[in-house]
């Protein structure tokens, strides 16, 4: 009996010592948020609690969120830097008036939230840019740009990292000691808008010319190559030593030897530099995460903005300058639990997409929780500079948008924080929160139900190949960013993976695989990929496989795709579909070119326009007609631009430009036996039990649900029976509806 009592006391003491715990764990096959060892709904309210003293926007919306079932709040707090000698205590940007209490300002923000809700679960977000006085005393630690300007901090700075380490430790200790029973995780941020990509990336400049970066680059190169002999061979420089390594000049970064591409052999230094710069951002995130995990005894979650591979494809000087091309490293970290990003800013309006910025399913596959930042400019937004991001006019349009966004995350069991951007009261609406409460109830009811998310299609994006591109967005803007306008409208749902997950065997390829990038792939990897594709369909785009470790060659494209090519020069990027009922249904005679997202004034369904490259593609490749080749589209000189063929056990489709229309993808899917829900350019998201359909225009949608099933409209509580497996449902322009897919037990 004494032993039982002692064991019970030990258990109680252990529970008390642990306090509040929050982790991301596998639950029924999905990364799931666990709070105090119980699965929790990852729906969150984000607002500006710092301003609670001056206005009521945060409080009003937080109260509404709580009523809707939301228990987690995220908000910015001032990060307090550890004092040095007699220096005044600073948060990141301004002096803290403490009267001896260094954390008074931080405490005030959190205390105000806890006065409203003592049981609040909190995720503080804070910036780790050093205080102004520190930068003034350490100007050599700033980031330097190609135009001679300096800004913020060089994240390779050892001096800054030491200051961060000491300050972050003290910060977390204080938070855990005083608020450990409320804080479930920490969200440190850095660089541009706190989203972990280099400052001024959107401008026509290059970052990274400061001495701390050069020192760290040399150390990284030393670790990569191990010996001067290996380095000199890789860089084709017999005079190079680890001590003589310099940063590439702006001219070296801007220029490339082969049009859109860098030569993997002769331009290895610049390629290595961009690999390093992306590694450095991921390494910095890991550096913060390790500190947080250690100071919380691994009992709180760590969140990071990262991996905007699709969205940053528009960066003028190329996505390789941003630092967001090392997602694989981030996903391998045991210290990072949650990856997050805003919903794509392109095509946000009713009838639009709500696309992911990231390879979200690789995040899920790695056991991390993905969280969308839903900063929708709601119908309450009156700022003309902000309203264009969606242009919502009514509450009803707003609710349709939220239906669409919920449909993206729910089948995958991912999360969202609903954000009142700029503390404008954009979520101060009973109608909005009543609707979000319905999402919460749906999600909560399915927490202990295994997700049936398992699409027959994968979109596979390559984060390594852009390191080998010239510094512009001619290829990535249409293929990584613009093509989403077509992919999300091909009538079915799809996984989004990193190519590296395919190459290392982390994912098993489905029926149809659409490869974005894949410009650089090594010989051994090419063999693995071809082997993994047996029995599948692969869709390739412009110059897929063009580069490997030995150089650049159209023969490399042939080895990957199975076609033989003729090289063309300075061709435009539009193609024309030719007659072929199987592949080109509803396309014969149509022209198509790579698309870019346009301004909010563009009224077509995709909100896009055709890309124009001055002088055309410097190099382009036409498929040579052979017996097994099926021509599908031609360039303006009638050479083959798009073709299909059987190759090495799989069906290979090669497109000589950086895009294809949604209708063509639908035709490919049908040929491969993939279930297509709608034969229109409307939005679909689904698993085996849940379906969302969103339309751009007013229409009666024909929804193919397959045999033996019916639809149940979740919010309208309406049962919809099919005729010949097709459900007809009327939609308003811009409406998104949510359904349960149910087994039809009615006897015919």
Describe, in plain words, how this protein is organized in 3D.
With about 750 residues, the chain is of the alpha/beta class. Helix content is about 30%, strand content about 20%. A hairpin with a 2-residue loop joins β2 and β3 (about 40). α13 packs parallel to α14. The longest helix has 28 residues, at about 270-295. It starts with a helix and ends in a 5-residue tail after the last strand.
Uncertain stretches: 1-17
> What percentage of residues falls in helices of 4 or more residues?
25-40%
Helix/strand/pairing class, anyone? alpha/beta
What is the CATH topology descriptor of the largest domain?
Answer: TIM Barrel
CATH class of the largest domain, named: Alpha Beta
Global geometry? globular
Please summarize the sheet with the most strands.
9 strands, mixed
- Whole-number mean pLDDT: 93
List key phrases describing it.
alpha/beta; Rossmann fold; TIM Barrel; eight-stranded parallel β-barrel; nine-stranded mixed sheet; globular; 3 domains; 35 strands; 748 residues
Task: Give a brief outline of the structure.
This protein has 748 residues and is an alpha/beta fold.
